[in-house]
Design goal:
The complex is a heterodimer of chains A (about 350) and B (about 950). With about 350 residues, chain A is of the alpha+beta class. Chain A has two domains: about 40 residues; about 240 residues, no CATH class. Chain A contains eleven helices and eleven strands. In chain A, strands 1-11-4-8-7 form a five-stranded antiparallel sheet. In chain A, β5 and β6 form a beta hairpin. In chain A, α2 packs antiparallel against α10. Chain A is extended, with a radius of gyration of 32 Å. Helices cover about 50% and strands about 15% of the residues of chain B. Chain B contains 38 helices and 20 strands. The chains are: A alpha+beta (about 350), B alpha/beta (about 950).
């Protein structure tokens, strides 16, 4: 349309010229940056990336190695209990066992207690969808419409609260940690709250509104595998009871892996434990409720610290080291090729 | 999977087929041939109603649009498949990805396709033209099984639904670029290039065989008297200039339009005035040109318009007029000329007609001085046979004829003979007798003419230029360098076709010619077999040979049994010229090559007789702006000049091919990367069909987060500049041989994607396996892993697009960095909308946690790096080891840019030297084969050509006898 303005229409020229615009876009002549693989840029970037990755990788591996971790498989240590739990009719019989271990050195810093499950496919599709997030918001919703089935209602029509397979299968062992100091046994103080994501605790999980919690859940029943109803998950702490119970919230975040660990407790850093766990003999007192033999699973209890980079997993560091090595090697190979064929490359200068 | 049509290396990249769409009405031209006989009743109303001649080439009307469009779309296998998936997803509890994740993109795609159809159909309505192409994508059959349904839905995006949309948009834009190209705009007729379909852009980059019409396509259909040789002296011939013109680099020289197209040599008239020794001959020569012909002058006002049934004669008469010998009038028995101001009347006694057999025509006149004279013009060989022993200048003239022929000029020899009254009278008796014979009169007459056409005295020769369109030889030279085989299919005679072959430099004097002119099947078979045998081992390779075959022989050569040997022979020749072929034969030839050679064919023509071949070839190009519109209306691309073909193929075609293939490969790559990750995750989750990512993140992957890079690759990618593409036609071979897209490359990309997906999944998985990633000890869930992996995928895939991009325009930056940003913004927003909006409860708080995670940031660097270091290292190693032509050209471009234009201008500049060096290296041909079979004519052509209507109802002499222009002139006055 530029033509129209720049050239007044001539006599007898009825229609405007069909000449296309001479713009950089239409003529495909937009300015462009054309990166070139010159030998200098290639080699320098390869060696730089290689060196950087190697350095970071070594740091990460070293820091991951400094993490202290104790992992105890207790699925067989309480063999009586595991047998008892194989029969679901014994659901209301209590079973306790204890597991001893010794710390040869102090574990300093924040110490976290995890429970770990092996071969428990939380990531199975039918399992993952079996929940009602609307119900967990404390809303009075018709859970029949959710994917909770078959853990929706009992035969008499009483809805389960919370519904669904995830909630029903909640990990319900209780683990307490005792420090055996000179024949006296001190219970290690553990924090039950503050272990879940802020958004979960404050937005995603809400108890139904009522004057008290048990009335809020009136007309509902506990899921079949549970020993107590949801409003009795933590009788001591109102803000850790019902749907907003940390143990429950954490369980409801399903893991991507069949072997996973969930944060259970944190060591409260007071008195003897102000710096972490001192060296010595310890005992886990476990109320054994969660059956694992049915699915050939294992149960662990884990004590671990963290460092700036995260947990004890060295893989990230290894990945950096491998990538760095690969980049450096590639750099050397290209250098070799370049040197060998240098004559050929000076073709134009002849 | 997209199934490929061809098994060989040449694949149509999208699986799109060019085929006529049976839904749309046949085109008008097709109807013409098959119109049944009609009975017309006289003096009464017609009893049967014939179809009116309203031609509708548009596909839709307002009413039929929706049903027809939907039908068309659903017929595409891909869309049907997606509709099927969308329906499956409506079954509750089957879909892992939600109910609308396929339906919504499908509707989106249909909308885009609909808009495109509307725009294109609107154009059709406007142009009243038909472009009927349909796309088919075939797919592997899908097994059934309830459990499998989940998986089908999960992996349906491996056939990227977005690819189809992307391709539609990309190709549409490419077509627009063709329309917008100012280099293909012809200001004289105000015609821009026009892509009438957008589905064949990439085929323009793969053309191996070019079938061209001659008249109107290669030539302007204008004849000019250009040069002559009179009594051993040439006029209008400047060999020094010519030699320079023919040197290597065409682009340095002004285009041939600027040079004079008329005879322009003042020496001729000076020689007459200055009584040069040959002055008499010159006058005689010009008189002959003004007298010996069958042209009829028509006076309109003060100008004379010559009506010539032979364009050659027209050119000669006009040439003589320009030199002062004006043919002014014709009476039934005389010709009036104005020779340098003096009016002379020549009594025409006899016209000895032209025939292609005789290759000459003569007139017997009584000159104003009362002498009897025979003027004759014709082919060099027939004239030379009949020259008298006293005739001079034979050697010089022959030599000049050779020069003229080299330039592709049409030559005629000019001679005369003085007749004695006696001999004429004797001959006249014979003639009168012969002309009343009933049996074989034509032949008898020819024999009779033979008697008097003897003892001729040579005057010289004329050279007529059948004017080529601007830039034709340069274009052909470029196309030949690009290894495009050029076949000229013309209705013209062999001589004419040969001349054009020479003048457009398709054939050079160094080339051997194989002429095949037979008149029976057996003879044709024998001849073709003989030629094939003579070629021996060279058969099937490209030889420096031109094959010239005429339509009559072609009739036999195209028959089933001989076809193969004809094809073998033709494909072994560098150039093929088929002359005197009918429109049907044109399309038959194209069809034969198309079927037997696994290559893309292109036909270019301008007239109604080219419609067949234009429609038959893979790509049809019409020359627009000239006579009829039939060729244009049936073509896929319309350009105003043959020379624009160069840019259309070498730039637009090659680019489009590159872009489309890069776009397709990239789309496959990015989808394989994402969806194979789901497969890896299936190993972890017991093949339950659980997905690692949030469903809408997957759904929007192709629609938003990685939607832009394929567009920039498909629209703005250019491996090197337009100038380089034209300067190094060898670059065309890359696309022509489908080096950029074949089974190997496709699987290479898929395997690369597989490796990337392994890194992208297993790295983060192993890192996050122990679930302690935060310094506050908090745990993570499956979607946390998923979001991290997804972020890495988006970043890696966008950076990969960056690696594929050789020219980063601002749009490329926008696409690569913008896509990453889009995902980040979406991630942030999407992680905060539950429970305000009832979607994505699992996503709540994810963004905050992911961005707070140290592992995420460490991984964000190392995972894409690990993926891409491999790619870069591979490319760099290859690049260091051996630079492809493309890479060398790219390097050269960068250097030239860096050195600046000042250096380029400096003839001693290094950059120029380098360019020349590369040019020379590329220009170096394989040494010409020493092989010269005896059957191959190493003929020295003298360029004879003359066109004249023959065997008409009214003979030429009768025509000229029926005019009396003096009378009419008198009446008017």
């Amino acid at each position: 349309m530029k033509n129209k303005t720049s050239f007044p229409p001539q006599e007898g020229e009825a229609r405007p010229s069909r000449c296309p615009d001479n713009s950089a876009f239409k003529q495909q002549k937009l300015p462009a940056w054309k990166p070139q693989l010159t030998i200098a840029t290639v080699l320098s970037s390869f060696f730089l990336i290689g060196a950087f990755c190697l350095a970071v990788g070594v740091c990460l591996v070293l820091s991951a190695n400094s993490v202290r971790e104790i992992q105890i498989d207790y699925s067989d240590k309480c063999s009586d209990c595991s047998k008892l739990r194989e029969n679901s009719s014994n659901w209301n019989k209590e079973c306790h066992c204890s597991v001893n271990f010794t710390l040869k050195e102090d574990i300093l810093g924040d110490v976290f207690m995890y429970y770990g499950l092996q071969n428990f496919y939380q990531n199975h599709r039918r399992y993952v969808i079996s929940r009602s997030d609307a119900q967990l918001l404390g809303r009075n919703v018709n859970i029949q419409k959710s994917y909770c089935a078959p853990f929706t209602t009992y035969r008499n029509g009483t809805p389960m609260a919370p519904c669904g397979a995830i909630a029903n299968s909640m990990f319900n062992d209780t683990i307490d940690l005792f420090y055996n100091l000179n024949s006296s046994v001190i219970q290690v103080p553990l924090l039950r709250t503050g272990n879940s994501w802020w958004t979960d605790k404050n937005v995603k999980f809400r108890n139904p509104e009522s004057y008290n919690l048990s009335s809020a859940f009136a007309g509902t029943a506990r899921p079949p595998y549970w020993q107590k109803p949801v409003y009795l998950l933590d009788e001591e702490d109102e803000r850790n009871n019902g749907y907003i119970n940390d143990d429950f919230i954490i369980w409801m975040r399903v893991s991507a892996f069949a072997t996973f660990r969930n944060l259970y407790r944190r060591v409260r850093r007071i008195r003897q434990f102000a710096d972490g766990l001192p060296a010595g003999n310890y005992t886990f007192h476990i109320s054994y409720n969660f059956p694992v033999t049915k699915f050939k699973g294992r149960k662990h209890v884990i004590l671990s610290t963290v460092v700036w980079s995260g947990g004890s997993n060295p893989f990230l560091g290894i990945a950096y080291v491998v990538t760095g090595t690969a980049a450096t090697l590639a750099g050397f190979v290209i250098t070799a090729i370049h040197l060998k064929l240098r004559k050929k490359k000076t073709y134009f200068q002849k | 999977m997209l199934s490929q049509e061809n098994d060989g290396p040449v694949c149509s990249p999208s699986g799109y087929k060019k085929a006529d769409d049976e839904m749309s009405g046949a085109t008008s031209s097709a109807d013409l041939d098959e119109a049944p006989a009609r009975t017309i009743y006289l003096n009464q109303p017609q009893q049967s109603k014939f179809r009116d001649n309203w031609v509708s080439t548009a596909k839709y009307s307002v009413v039929t649009f929706l049903p027809r469009f939907l039908y068309e779309q659903i017929r595409k296998a891909a869309n049907a498949f997606f509709l099927f998936i969308a329906l499956l997803q409506q079954i509750p509890d089957v879909s892992p990805t939600g109910r609308y994740t396929t339906l919504v993109p499908l509707l989106f795609i249909l909308t885009i396709a609909g808009i495109k159809e509307i725009i294109e159909d609107y154009k059709r309505h406007k142009a009243d033209s038909a472009v009927n192409k349909k796309k088919t994508i075939e797919m592997l059959s899908v097994n059934f099984g309830y459990n499998l349904l989940t998986f089908i839905i999960l992996y349906n995006n491996l056939i990227p639904i977005s690819l189809l949309v992307t391709l539609e948009v990309v190709k549409f834009t490419q077509a627009l670029f063709i329309n917008w190209d100012i280099d293909m705009y012809y200001p004289e007729t105000d015609t821009p290039a026009m892509a009438r379909t957008s589905n064949l852009n990439e085929e323009l980059g793969q053309v191996k065989y070019l079938f061209s019409d001659k008249t109107g396509t290669l030539t302007c259909n204008i004849m000019n008297f250009k040069k002559c040789s009179i009594a051993g002296v040439t006029y209008g011939h400047f060999p020094e200039l010519e030699r320079e013109r023919s040197s290597e680099d065409f682009s340095q020289l002004p285009p041939s339009t600027s040079e004079s197209c008329e005879f322009d040599d003042p020496r001729l008239l000076q020689n007459i005035e200055n009584d040069h020794p040959t002055a008499v001959h010159i006058q005689e020569f010009l008189t002959l040109l003004a007298v010996c012909h069958t042209v009829v002058p028509e006076r309109q006002g003060n100008t004379i318009i010559y009506q010539a049934s032979s364009p050659d004669e027209g050119a000669l008469v006009k040439g003589a007029k320009k030199l002062g010998y004006v043919f002014t009038g014709r009476t039934p028995h005389s010709v009036i000329i104005d020779a340098l101001g003096k009016e002379k009347t020549f009594e025409i006694l006899n016209v000895l007609e032209f025939s292609s057999n005789r290759k000459r025509m003569s007139v017997i006149v009584r000159t104003p001085a009362g002498k009897l004279r025979l003027y004759c013009k014709g082919a060099d060989n027939v004239i030379f046979e009949r020259l008298s022993k006293d005739s001079q200048y034979m050697e010089q003239t022959l030599c000049h004829l050779e020069y003229f022929a080299t330039e592709g000029l049409r030559t005629l020899c000019i001679a005369y003979a003085d007749l004695s009254e006696n001999s004429y009278r004797e001959w006249l008796n014979v003639y009168n007798e012969t002309s009343t014979v009933l049996k074989d009169r034509a032949q008898k007459l020819e024999e009779c003419y033979e008697i008097i056409e003897k003892d001729l005295l040579l005057l010289g020769a004329t050279a007529i230029e059948d004017r080529l369109q601007a830039g034709v030889p340069e274009t052909i030279a470029t196309l030949i360098k690009a290894e495009i085989k050029i076949w000229i299919l013309t209705g013209d005679k062999q001589e004419t076709a040969l001349n054009i072959g020479y003048s457009c430099r398709l054939i050079s004097q160094s080339m051997s010619l194989i002429l095949v002119n037979e008149d029976s099947l057996d003879a044709t078979r024998a001849s073709l077999t003989q030629h094939c045998t003579n070629l021996g081992e060279s058969l099937g390779k490209e030889n420096d040979i031109a094959l010239i075959i005429d339509g009559h022989t072609l009739k036999y050569a195209l028959s089933f049994e001989v076809r193969q040997s004809f094809l073998d022979l033709a494909l072994s020749c560098k150039a093929v010229i088929c002359c005197r072929v009918s429109p049907l034969q044109k399309s038959e030839i194209v069809d034969m090559v198309k079927k037997h050679v696994n290559a893309i064919t292109l036909a270019i023509g301008d007239g109604a007789n080219d419609v067949g071949m234009i429609q038959t070839a893979h790509v049809g190009v019409g020359i627009s702006g000239n006579e009829g519109m039939q060729a244009t209306n049936c073509s896929d691309y319309a350009i105003a000049q043959f020379s624009y073909l160069e840019k259309l193929l070498l730039v637009h075609g090659a680019w489009s091919y590159n872009r489309v293939t890069k776009c397709i490969l990239y789309c496959f790559y990015k989808n394989v990367v994402l969806y194979i990750i789901e497969l890896w995750f299936a190993f972890v989750n017991g093949f339950s069909g659980q997905i690692l990512f949030e469903r809408w993140c997957i759904g929007l992957y192709n629609v938003i987060f990685t939607a832009l890079p394929p567009f920039t690759l498909g629209i703005f990618e250019r491996s090197c500049t337009q100038d380089s593409m034209l300067r190094f036609p060898q670059l065309y071979k890359i696309t022509q041989n489908a080096d950029g897209f074949n089974t190997r490359v496709f699987w290479g990309h898929c395997i690369n994607a597989l490796i990337h997906s392994i890194i992208l999944f297993w790295f983060p998985l192993k890192v996050l396996e122990h679930d302690a990633v935060f310094t506050n000890g908090q745990g993570i869930d499956y979607l946390f892993v998923g979001n991290i992996v997804y972020t890495y995928v988006v970043v890696t895939v966008c950076l990969k697009a960056g690696l594929e991009t050789t020219a980063w325009t601002r749009f490329s930056h926008l696409a690569v960095w913008g896509s990453m940003l889009l995902w980040l913004v979406f991630f942030g927003v999407y992680s905060a909308i539950w429970p305000t909006l009832p979607i994505a409860p699992d996503m709540l708080g994810q963004a905050g946690m992911v961005l707070r995670c140290g592992y995420f940031w460490f991984g964000l660097f190392v995972v894409p790096t690990a993926c891409l270091v491999k790619d870069v290292a591979w490319t760099a190693a290859k690049h260091t080891y051996h630079k492809t032509l493309l890479e060398q050209v790219q390097e050269l471009e960068t250097k030239t840019r860096e050195l600046g234009k000042a250096m380029l201008r400096d003839s001693n500049g290094k950059s120029v030297n380098e360019r020349d060096h590369l040019l020379k290296r590329l220009g170096r041909k394989t040494p010409p084969s020493l092989f010269r079979a005896h059957s191959v004519q190493q003929s020295v052509s003298h360029g004879y050509a003359f066109s004249q209507e023959e065997h008409g109802v009214v003979s030429q002499s009768e025509v000229v006898r029926s005019y009396d222009t003096t009378k009419r002139r008198a009446e008017i006055e």
